[in-house]
Design goal:
six-stranded mixed beta sheet, single chain, 7 helices, globular, 10 strands, alpha/beta
């Protein structure tokens, strides 16, 4: 599903790579935590997957596509096969919950009938259907993140990438979001979560890939967080 082949990423003006010599394979249907100290390269790794960044060298393959070879015009179509959940939600504050989730379909020219079918189903899955007509700015942080998850899954993506999805949430809401991601994974979607949430990683015992100084130092099935 996702494959990094000797990937190095050096940002302009950097002397030290953010990622160096990364080799990683994630199979379809896996749930993988990416962990490590701040500055280890977690966010860079996730951004390479959805082609927000390009590798300086090496190859990043997603669903059989070498993402660095995509033309600029092809990138939006590639991203339609993915769902991305951000730490800061990235909702449109003046739009309703329904409109925020529908937006992910509107940009793909989905029909009104399809939008009316898919959006309520996604909101039902995350427990937000009863708040479909509220504006995003009226929601709590936990509710906003649930809407963000609904937006990420409304197109039935084969892969969901979550970059610190619980970082701005209290423990109760953080667990709710993590349970949603687990449910999505159990439905067959590959899920990659970059996180500092030690208690969750230790409790769930999923595959753990640990980064330090831009390199993979540990890759364990049923792993733990491993940092103080």
């Amino acid at each position: 599903m996702v494959r990094f082949v000797n990937v190095t990423k050096i940002y302009p003006g950097q002397t030290k790579p953010s990622l160096q010599g990364i080799n990683l394979e994630i199979d379809r249907g896996e749930f993988v935590f990416i962990v490590g100290p701040s500055g280890a390269g977690k966010s860079t790794l996730t951004r390479l997957i959805y082609r927000e960044e390009l590798p300086t060298s090496g190859q990043v393959w997603v669903g059989g596509i070498n993402v660095a070879k995509l033309k600029r015009s092809q990138v939006p179509y590639f991203r339609r096969t993915l769902g991305v959940v951000f730490q800061d939600f990235k909702l449109l504050p003046d739009r309703t919950v329904f409109e925020n989730v529908a937006f992910a379909l509107e940009v793909t020219d989905a029909s009104r009938r399809e939008i009316l079918r898919r959006v309520p189903a996604a909101l039902e899955l995350v427990g937000m259907r009863d708040k479909a007509n509220q504006r995003a700015q009226e929601l709590s942080g936990g509710e906003q993140q649930r809407v963000a998850v609904a937006r990420a899954i409304v197109r039935n993506p084969s892969l969901v990438i979550a970059d610190e999805p619980t970082g701005n949430l209290d423990p109760e809401n953080a667990w709710q979001i993590m349970r949603l991601l687990l449910n999505i994974n159990q439905m067959g979607t590959t899920v990659i979560v970059a996180t500092h949430a030690r208690e969750m990683v230790d409790a769930l015992r999923k595959r753990v890939v640990a980064l330090e100084n831009g390199t993979i130092v540990r890759d364990e099935e049923r792993g733990v967080y491993g940092y103080a």
